[in-house]
Each structure stands twice: as C-alpha cells, then as structure tokens.
Amino acid sequence: MATRILNVVTNVGHYDDPSHETGLWLSELTHAWHVFEQHGFDQSIVSPAGGPSPLEPRSLTFPNYDKTAKAWRADTARMALLEHTASPDQIDSADYDAIFFTGGHAVMYDFPDSDGLQRISREIFERGGIVAAVCHGYCGLLNTKLSDGSYLVAGRELTGFAWQEEVLARVDKLVPYNAEAEMKKRGARYRKARLPFVSYAVVDGNLVTGQNPGSAKETATKIAAKL
User: Fold this and answer.
1) Domains held by the chain: number
2) 129 contacts 225 by C-beta, under 8 angstroms
3) CATH code at 30?
4) Among 20, 40, 193, 202, which is most buried by a count of CB atoms within 10 Å?
5) From CA 141, how far away is CA 149, in angstroms rounded?
C-alpha cells in the first residue's frame, strides 16, 4: 500500500476585521505536495468544516508566488481540490501515515478548536504516525490532547511562525493571539531560527514542524525521510 498523507487547510477568509483578507498560504501546501508527490505518496486534503479553502492574497504576490504555486492555480483539477475539501468526520485516521497542517494566518481561527482534527491527530500520533505542521499550521496542535489528557505538544521540541515574524510582517495588531506564547504555555519547547524568515524545521520523534512559509519544503523532506 502507498504511503498516505492528509494535508490540512483552512476555511477562513479574513481576520476579525473582515476588510483584511487571509486564507491558505498556497506555497506551504504546494511545496510540501510536490515533495510528497515525488516520493509517490497518496495525498488528500481536509479542512475543519469541509468545502472551500480561500487563498491568502499575500501568498499570491512576489516573492511568495513561485512556480509550484503558479502551476497549482493554473491547474483546474488542483484548484478543485481546494474547493471540495473533506471534513474531518469523513476521514478515517487509520487510512493515513501522516497529517500535515498548512498555514496562513486564517488557521489561527479555525484550526485550534476543531474536535475532528484533534481526533485525527491524536489517533495518528498515538499509533506512531507523523503529526506535522508548517508556519501557523502549528495552531492546529495548540489544544490537541492525547488519550492520557496531556497536551500532544507538552515537553516536545517544535517550531512555528515566531512572534518576531508577526511584527516584521506587520500583522501583530491583526492576529487574534500570540501563537508562540500560547505554545509555550502548553509546555512546548519552542525553537526558532536565529534569523527570521529563513527555512528552519524541527524533528522530535514523530512530531515534525517548520517555522515559516520558506520552511515547507524542508519540513516535507523531513517528513518523507521519517516515512
């Protein structure tokens, strides 16, 4: 049987202020998808509510909008995958070897409290599968607890979009919370690169995380190596 990856995307299209749009940071999906595709892995896409996943406008501008993202947007079949994502209740975690949470600021709103995504993550993690995230995707692990009631991230090394990067991206006044600080509150051993916006990924057992949009390829490569 082929190795199977479950990619997670958002359903949210704006910040608390509706005039500020957000959504899936497209290259975080396309860079990882390309790596997984090269390894011959089967891939599916799920979102907290199922259905459409809007795209973050800033991810469609230079320098974020690279050839993999452009190729995805030009492919009607690929774009259809983002229009018709599965919902968690349609997913049997036993079918997947890894779950990969993509980012974009939108995920800060709908990833943390999705009971369905928490269930899938817990089940995959507890049977030794890979739980992974890039950038804001780690918000999907904020409230995930294991069967013993402990936080999945407690005591584990991980990374994700840094508060310093929020400030540099000039969205620190728009975001609903400080994800880095919230992770530390849950006992995670947060790590980040010495410089902002450079590729950086952390592996702790079967937890694999990347810091920012530029880390998606490295994160996916580390996931593939473990699989």
Assistant:
1) 1
2) no
3) 3.40.50.880
4) 202
5) 14
